[in-house]
Inverse folding.
């Protein structure tokens, strides 16, 4: 008697993956912000109404609100139409049986790095498949570094779809039952890849200098908050000076905590290990540039606020 073929286990099927609505829904957040600005912004605009308890908007809230509404509506409609139409097309093709099937072992496997930057690719017979966790896709896109099942030499059976718009889209992925990597093994591999990425970031001189530089710039900025707190309290729309005592205490306490947190984080990174002198010098230069950019942004906002205030008074 012959041996029965080893069964395959389905690890992915497109009909079991819901539409990723969160991607176009990002625009709805900004749409709501725009509606709030249009509806309530003019009432709270101190520059327009002279209300001492109002907010000091740098840009008139109603035009700003309309900008958010138009941009967010455009983003939501375009993102939804593109992603949902693709989702319907691929699901429809699978249900109608308009796909090809290839069976064999995974060859030429190139796993995706944990941080992305390149897709995970492999070949089964003559068919090549590529995907990434960082793409919004209705099809299979879970890389090994993020817990996916694909490994070199893995026996698989793949139902895939191709046309002029899509190439090698995996609609169903089956793995031979005796070769499917256990969930614990996949999780351990993904965790190891994450740790390797973190280690590489920590030991990359450029990334290390940028992180130290940004932390130093953040600490310097928060220190500026504490020294010149009356300048920055205006950005929160608080009426004054003079300021109510509890408002002054609360704000100065807030900026002091921000400065303390930035100092602790900077010192923690600084004392973590010894670095080459060039890294410290590069970090210092990055901090100087970052702080100058912050100063420039503050000056631009203050200039815009003063200009709008003058225009309002002249009316």
């Amino acid at each position: 008697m012959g041996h029965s073929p080893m069964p395959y286990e389905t690890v992915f099927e497109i009909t079991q993956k819901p539409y990723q609505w969160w991607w176009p829904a990002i625009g709805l957040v900004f749409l709501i912000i725009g509606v709030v600005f249009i509806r309530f912004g003019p009432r709270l605009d101190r520059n327009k109404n002279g209300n001492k308890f109002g907010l000091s908007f740098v840009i008139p809230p109603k035009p700003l609100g309309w900008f958010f509404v138009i941009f967010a509506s455009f983003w939501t409609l375009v993102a939804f139409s593109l992603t949902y139409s693709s989702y319907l097309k691929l699901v429809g093709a699978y249900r109608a049986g308009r796909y090809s099937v290839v069976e064999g072992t995974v060859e030429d496997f190139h796993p995706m790095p944990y941080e992305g930057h390149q897709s995970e690719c492999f070949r089964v017979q003559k068919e090549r498949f590529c995907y990434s966790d960082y793409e919004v896709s209705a099809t299979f896109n879970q890389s090994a570094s993020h817990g996916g099942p694909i490994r070199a030499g893995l026996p698989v059976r793949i139902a895939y779809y191709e046309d002029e718009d899509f190439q090698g889209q995996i609609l169903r992925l089956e793995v031979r039952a005796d070769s499917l990597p256990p969930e614990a093994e996949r999780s351990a591999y993904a965790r190891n890849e994450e740790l390797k990425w973190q280690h590489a970031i920590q030991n990359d001189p450029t990334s290390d200098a940028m992180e130290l530089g940004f932390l130093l710039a953040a600490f310097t900025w928060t220190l500026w908050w504490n020294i010149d707190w009356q300048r920055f309290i205006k950005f929160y729309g608080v009426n004054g000076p003079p300021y109510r005592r509890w408002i002054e205490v609360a704000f100065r306490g807030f900026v002091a905590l921000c400065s303390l947190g930035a100092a602790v984080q900077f010192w923690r990174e600084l004392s973590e290990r010894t670095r080459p002198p060039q890294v410290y010098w590069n970090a210092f230069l990055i901090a100087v540039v970052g702080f100058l950019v912050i100063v420039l942004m503050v000056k631009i906002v203050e200039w815009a606020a003063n200009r709008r205030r003058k225009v309002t008074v002249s009316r």
Observations:
- The mean pLDDT is 88.
